[in-house]
Structures are given as C-alpha cells and as structure tokens.
TrEMBL record:
<feature type="cross-link" description="Glycyl lysine isopeptide (Gly-Lys) (interchain with K-? in acceptor proteins)">
    <location>
        <position position="103"/>
    </location>
</feature>
<dbReference type="InterPro" id="IPR015221">
    <property type="entry name" value="Urm1"/>
</dbReference>
<keyword id="KW-0833">Ubl conjugation pathway</keyword>
<protein>
    <recommendedName>
        <fullName>Ubiquitin-related modifier 1</fullName>
    </recommendedName>
</protein>
<dbReference type="InterPro" id="IPR016155">
    <property type="entry name" value="Mopterin_synth/thiamin_S_b"/>
</dbReference>
<dbReference type="GO" id="GO:0032447">
    <property type="term" value="P:protein urmylation"/>
</dbReference>
<keyword id="KW-0819">tRNA processing</keyword>
<comment type="similarity">
    <text>Belongs to the URM1 family.</text>
</comment>
<dbReference type="GO" id="GO:0005829">
    <property type="term" value="C:cytosol"/>
</dbReference>
<dbReference type="InterPro" id="IPR012675">
    <property type="entry name" value="Beta-grasp_dom_sf"/>
</dbReference>
<comment type="pathway">
    <text>tRNA modification; 5-methoxycarbonylmethyl-2-thiouridine-tRNA biosynthesis.</text>
</comment>
<dbReference type="GO" id="GO:0034227">
    <property type="term" value="P:tRNA thio-modification"/>
</dbReference>
<keyword id="KW-1017">Isopeptide bond</keyword>
<feature type="modified residue" description="1-thioglycine">
    <location>
        <position position="103"/>
    </location>
</feature>
<comment type="function">
    <text>Acts as a sulfur carrier required for 2-thiolation of mcm(5)S(2)U at tRNA wobble positions of cytosolic tRNA(Lys), tRNA(Glu) and tRNA(Gln). Serves as sulfur donor in tRNA 2-thiolation reaction by being thiocarboxylated (-COSH) at its C-terminus by the MOCS3 homolog UBA4. The sulfur is then transferred to tRNA to form 2-thiolation of mcm(5)S(2)U. Prior mcm(5) tRNA modification by the elongator complex is required for 2-thiolation. Also acts as a ubiquitin-like protein (UBL) that is covalently conjugated via an isopeptide bond to lysine residues of target proteins such as AHP1.</text>
</comment>
<dbReference type="Pfam" id="PF09138">
    <property type="entry name" value="Urm1"/>
</dbReference>
<keyword id="KW-0963">Cytoplasm</keyword>
Length: 103
C-alpha cells in the first residue's frame, strides 16, 4: 500500500525543489511488495523531485543523504530511528535541513 507523508526541505535546500519547502507525497509501493523504507523515499526524491541533475550532489553523497544535512523523522534524528531503513508510515513528517551555510 502506498504511504502518504509530508516532506520538508529547510535551511536552503528548498532552492533545489522549486523553492517549495513543504511537499505532501504519496510514495508508491515497491515492486516486490516489501515495506516502504526511507531509502525508497530518498530514491523517489532523487528520481522525481530534483529537476536539475547537477543538484543531486547537493542532496546525496555515496548513495545516502549528504553529510551536513540533518534528517529528522517526526522530529527525531534519523540515527535513532534506523536511518534509511526506517519503515515509513502514513502521516510521517520527514525533514531535511541543511546545516551548511555560506558566510
């Protein structure tokens, strides 16, 4: 069953997402019917939401969220929730906040 969630791109990340900070998404089922995990969401974001291929490296490094981007699952650090193996649930709020600022 697809999962409906809210995704937030904060700390300047919104510029690679058409300047929209908040998105309501429905993440589709996996072909093998396995649970939908955060890694599936990350792949969905890269494949469907980042329009300029050059911007992928702003968000992803070594096939995971780039260091310097704080990732929260329902306001809890993703490291406490299993990182990209977290099983998504309807109503989850996933926040990505860049901590890298120019100065």
């Amino acid at each position: 069953m697809p999962v409906s969630i809210k995704v937030e791109f904060l700390g300047g990340l919104d510029v690679i997402f058409e300047s929209q900070r908040y998105h309501k998404l429905t993440v589709p089922n996996n072909e093998d019917e396995s649970p939908i995990i955060l890694k599936n969401l990350i792949d969905y974001i890269v494949n469907n939401m980042i329009s300029d291929p050059k911007d992928v490296e702003v968000f992803i490094e070594n096939d995971t969220i780039r260091p310097g981007i704080l990732t929260l699952i329902n306001d809890t650090d993703w490291e406490l929730e299993g990182e990209d193996q977290y099983e998504l649930e309807n109503g989850d709020v996933i926040s990505f906040t860049s901590t890298l600022h120019g100065g």
